[in-house]
Amino acid sequence: MTPSCSSLLMLPTELKEQITEYLDLEALEACRLVDQDLKEHSLRSFQFYFNTVTTTLHPDSLQRLINISNYQDFTNAIHIIDIKPEDRHEGILEDLNSTTLKWILQSGHMLPPYSYQYTRSYLSALASGTCTALLKRALRNCSYLEDVTFSWQPSSKVAISSELLTWNRNELDHLTRMQSTVLGAIIDSGVKLRTLMWCSSSERWGALTPKILEIGSGLMSRLRPALENLKDLDLCLQAEINVPRNAAFLTQLLELTPNLSHLILSLDTNVYQERNYLLEGMCQATVLPSLCEFELNCNGFYSTELALRFLRKHASTLKCLVLRDAEYPFDPVGERLETVIIPMLKTLRRNFRLETIQFGIDEEQRVEKTMAKLWPIEQLEESKEGVKNVLTIAIEAFEAMLLYYVATGVTFIT
């Protein structure tokens, strides 16, 4: 690790770039060594700007991260590393060449909305293990690292390969390589995380890929040291291929996190039975003794029932239950509400710590408030005419639930 330095003049370029990213234009000029006062300013005052450091998986970007982590004035300030897989300016993407363009047209695929493709040097570095080795070095240097965020953007922007393989297979293979790089670096670096977020704005492509989900028990056991202190887990799963292995992966992963207190689980909304298979496996096999908050992002009545089963299993510790993107919390007929849901809730009344239940509705239904608000139907705008029946059913079901919970002190929020 390089020695401490008292002057901004002697900072490496990547350190000055990290600082100036958060400063205004006037301060930016000062960081370019125009202002004498800033030259003599204590470097400790800039440590705040290194709490979160963003990188890509390109070797050049990872080398800059290593240079930052080598500098003792700032390495202890790094608590979050945010990994962005795609960047137009990092040597990861380049303009679509004529060979790839010709292959796309001949194979009958539609052109991507942006004419970019991954560079050969980047793909080669991923395949050779270079990126894993560099990321591992950076993580090892960050002794106070707590969070690793891996956020994947929709890959429809990019043409993955000119090889004569199916488009989707190329996407999954590339994403698997990136995910393997990050997981491998976490394992080999010896870091102990408090937060792991594996998701993105795109449900489908934020998910862990099927090949990653097929990893053996040996790799799972190697993950244990990194996750044994984990408090927060935000995870996307793709539930449409090799479902038994997916369920086993989720169960094994959660078993590695005995101190987990906040779990956010986002499941592929394109599949119904497979999604519930995952939840059933989790309900049957998983016990999280420290779990306080559980958030489930997927739609369907049966998913809500499974979430309540999970609640019953963790009734002694769970304080907050959040169910998002639900079309409605209970079935429209109401039969299972009376025969399954209400009895299940009643069994929790003697031994539970639940303080908050939050239901959410899919934004596509254009209902802006949750059932917890219980807005009268007449207050809805005319443009929401098409969802009145759905909302009426939801409100009736929710009111039935309230009858059992008002006396217990449970709070319902949006």
Describe the structure.
This is F-box domain-containing protein. This protein is 43% helix and 14% strand. It is an alpha/beta fold. The chain has a domain at 292-414. A ten-stranded parallel β-sheet has the order 1-2-5-7-8-9-10-11-12-13. Helix 15 links the parallel strand 10 (293-297) and strand 11 (320-326). Helix 4 runs parallel beside helix 8. The radius of gyration is 25 Å and the shape is globular. The model is unreliable at 2-6, 24-39, 154-169, 200-206, 326-334, 361-397 and 402-414 (pLDDT under 50).
Summarize the topology:
Elements: H1 13-20, H2 25-31, H3 36-39, E1 52-55, H4 59-69, H5 72-75, E2 80-83, E3 93-95, H6 98-106, E4 116-118, H7 120-128, H8 130-141, E5 147-151, E6 158-159, H9 167-189, E7 195-199, H10 203-206, H11 210-213, H12 217-227, E8 232-237, H13 243-255, E9 262-267, H14 273-285, E10 293-297, H15 301-313, E11 320-326, H16 335-347, E12 356-361, H17 388-405, E13 411-413
Parallel strand pairs: 1-2, 2-5, 4-6, 5-7, 7-8, 8-9, 9-10, 10-11, 11-12, 12-13
Antiparallel strand pairs: 3-4
Helix pairs in contact: 4-8, 8-9, 13-14, 14-15, 15-16, 16-17
Protein name: F-box domain-containing protein
Organism: Tothia fuscella
**Mean pLDDT metric:** 64
Instruction: State the total count of DSSP E strands.
Output: 13
Helix percentage range: 40-55%
Percent strand: 5-15%
General form:
globular
Task: Identify the strand order in the major beta sheet.
Answer: 1-2-5-7-8-9-10-11-12-13
Task: Characterize the largest beta sheet: strand count, sense, and whether it forms a barrel.
Answer: 10 strands, parallel
> Number of helical runs?
17
Structural class: alpha/beta
Protein name: F-box domain-containing protein
